[in-house]
Amino acid sequence: MRAWQVQGAGEPAAVLRLVEREPPEPGPGEVRIRVTAAGLGLPDVFMCRGTYPLTPPLPFTSGQEATGVVTALGEGVERVAVGDRIMCVTSFIGGHGSFAEECLAAAQGAFPVPEGLSDADAAGFWIPHLTGWIGLVDRGRIVQGDQLVVLGAAGGSGIAAVQLGRALGARVIAVVGGEEKAEFCRGLGADEVVDHRDGPVAPRLRDLTDGRGVDLVYDPVGGAVAEDAAGALARHGRLLAVGFASGSWPSFATHDLVVTNRSLVGVFAGGYSRDELDEIHAQLAALVRDGRLRNAVTAQVSFADLPTALQRMADRGVIGKLVMVP
After folding, report:
1. Percent over 70 (pLDDT), the chain
2. pTM of the entire predicted model
3. Domain membership of residue 205 as a residue range
């Protein structure tokens, strides 16, 4: 089979190499799938650079998200059958990610594709929406009428949070960089859009909430933008630390959180039981079925164009979600 392999540490265009290799054999609890679509994400860029915490040893094939058809089962797999159409988190940590014609996935992380999603849609769906649900519902305790700020709202994680926030009854304020991204987020249903390139964000967020401040900041970006936005949190407000697309986590003085009764809340989509994940999957599938979660894939790229597409993502030249279709 063909596979894109990371063979060094650097920019995607420089370190990705196309290789021929035997399809990987699934280990206990794993399945092998024929990849029909693979989602691209910033973690894949960070793995190329060697800066992602879960980067496997060189050489490896990255790609965290996939849709495909099961072609082989490892020992002890019961929930999944050969021929099933699934979406999954891949075994990228072991170097067998979805930027290949076949990849591996833990059966624990494989789920039926919700009715109404194409292969390309599903490949970019599970990780962002699972994380969004855990962040907003499980960790953020969002309620109808909350004022929700989404940083990096035109990226894959942000798109999921904007749409989920709307579906759950929040007023959504999208924070982006540039008018093209702002217009994209308006089309997703954001109630307000703030361009962080126009100056400090916190004063404008307070203006948009009549001085009250916001209840939740969904933050897959980190860095200075997150530190700025946190200044607009209302009393009892929560900053949901999801990721660090900027390259660094935000830093806050504990004293400032204490005297304002604000919270910094960590969000990680690991460690959940299969029963918990099945319940989240059912809730998200219902929102898709009801038309309350829309397709957020903005472009499909070919297998051959993967390094170029990942480099565009690394250079911040992507709006929305990219998916590779082999």
Report:
1. 100
2. 0.90
3. 127-266
